[in-house]
Amino acid sequence: MSVRVLFLGPLRDLAGRGESEFVSASGDLDWPELLAVLESQVTPALADAVRDLRVKLAINGAVVADREAVVVRDGDEIALLPPVSGG
Amino acid sequence: MSVRVLFLGPLRDLAGRGESEFVSASGDLDWPELLAVLESQVTPALADAVRDLRVKLAINGAVVADREAVVVRDGDEIALLPPVSGG
Amino acid sequence: MRLLDRGFSPAPPLARLARACPQSGGVASYVGTVRSEGVLALELQHYPPLTLPGMENLAVAAVERFGLDGLLVWHRVGMLRPASPIVLAAAAARHRRQALDAVEYLMDHLKSAAWFWKRERRADGWHWIEPRAEDFSALDRWT
Amino acid sequence: MRLLDRGFSPAPPLARLARACPQSGGVASYVGTVRSEGVLALELQHYPPLTLPGMENLAVAAVERFGLDGLLVWHRVGMLRPASPIVLAAAAARHRRQALDAVEYLMDHLKSAAWFWKRERRADGWHWIEPRAEDFSALDRWT
Questions:
Q1: Which chain D residue is nearest to residue C87, measuring alpha carbons?
Q2: From the CB of residue C19, how many other CB atoms can be counted at a distance below 10 Å?
Q3: Does the pLDDT at position C100 exceed 90?
Q4: Which of A33, B28, C15, C26 has the highest count of CB atoms within 10 angstroms of its CB?
């Protein structure tokens, strides 16, 4: 399966890029598995920043209420959304 | 002596004009005398409207704090200012 | 602070205020217009020796109270047509709350404490506009 | 509700809003600009699948809450220069209090509840702007 992950705001700097495509031979990913992918395939600093509870998660354009309960499937677009600073 | 009296807002309609010049042989006018002049030389309805405590008085461009204590002198410009409705 | 006896467009003075205050975070404004429903014309009377000094005192008070970088108040007098601007109040400040509060303060004071008298021509003739009780209660917020 | 990736002038949309709402007593607005002091550039990031729907929900909520005749929110994204407009929020309503309150409501929610991330380039490089505690307390006023 393959998923696309978008790094918004300051997370972009930590990731060193705006988005990543992750391909894996295993099936769906849960939250700890997603964090593990970020840690090993991007940087541990990014995974740490994402552990901050203020970082929200959107799957295919919808914000997820309980990110611990998330299941990421093949073809999903995951956006990692740190606290906003608009206006 | 002669004084000019300006009728602002709705008072203009009651007076039937925007201003009047009053000439009198007597000396300075106090508040009751000014009301008497309005009553006899313009209309009683105007004098009644001016008795409303919300109508303020300016002499030569300065609003008078206590209109009962006013003394009108030769050459003064008196403005009769009903409640405003600006904006 | 300006009293105008002919129509104006709010955009040029607003743009000038923004340009004059580059250090500000933004500009808040309010443009009051003559209503179009049932109103054929509006006449605004004023008393020049009081009206403009009153607006200038108001401006000084607002700058001080809200720490404004700049402000402007343009007010029409004379005969106005439906949908034309009556008043433009605008304030530039570092933070938006100051700018928005200042505009509200200016409008509240212009509405019920400045020397204007207003009458509307409707189908059945001219009607003087009385001050509304809610305009006075709006003023109380600032004391 | 518009997201724009290039500069805009607030005057034309404001004039259009006023024309579109002839029954309104007036139009309140706020234009937020990039500060000029020490800021060389500003970048605004957004996440399109969330940002525009979020702004549209906000608009619906504001129209309902304040009984508006019309409103508009234009927001820049991308790279901005000092003194250029970031955001224009405007509301037309029968009474000025509704219009001014609606603009404050829109700005409070855009500042801390809309999906924008902002960084400034200063002399020493790029800095991400953190949300300020006062932006959250501003939101509390509306609940």
A1: D26
A2: 10
A3: yes
A4: C26
DSSP letter at C45 equals E
- Taking the CA of residue C47 and the nearest CA in chain D, the distance in Å comes to 24
Contacts of D114 in chain A (CB under 8 A): 84, 86-87
Structure-block tokens of residue D74: 């234009």
D104-126 average pLDDT score: 88
C107, D99: Cβ pair inside 8 Å? no
Q: Answer whether D35 touches C (CB < 8 Å).
A: yes
In this model, does residue D135 exceed pLDDT 70?
A: no
pLDDT of residue C113: 64
**Which chain B residues are Cβ-neighbours of C49 within 8 angstroms?**
58, 60-61, 79
Q: Which residues from C are below 8 Å from B79, CB to CB?
A: 47, 49-50
CA distance A51 to A30: 14
> Across the interface, do D33 and C27 touch by the CB < 8 Å criterion?
yes
Closest approach of B10 to chain C, Cα-based (Å): 6
Find the mean pLDDT for residues C73-98. 94
Tell me how far apart the alpha carbons of residues D113 and D106 are, in angstroms, rounded to a whole number: 10
Domains annotated for chain C, with CATH where assigned, are: 2-140 (3.90.1170.40)
Q: What is the pTM of this model?
A: 0.86
Contact D92, D21 (CB under 8 A): yes
Helix axis angle, B44-51 to B31-41, nearest 10° = 150
ipTM comes to: 0.82
Taken in order of first residue, the domains within chain B and their CATH numbers are 2-81 (3.10.20.30)
pLDDT for res C62: 96
Q: What is the pLDDT of residues C48-83, one digit of tens each?
A: 899 888 899 999 999 999 999 999 999 999 999 998
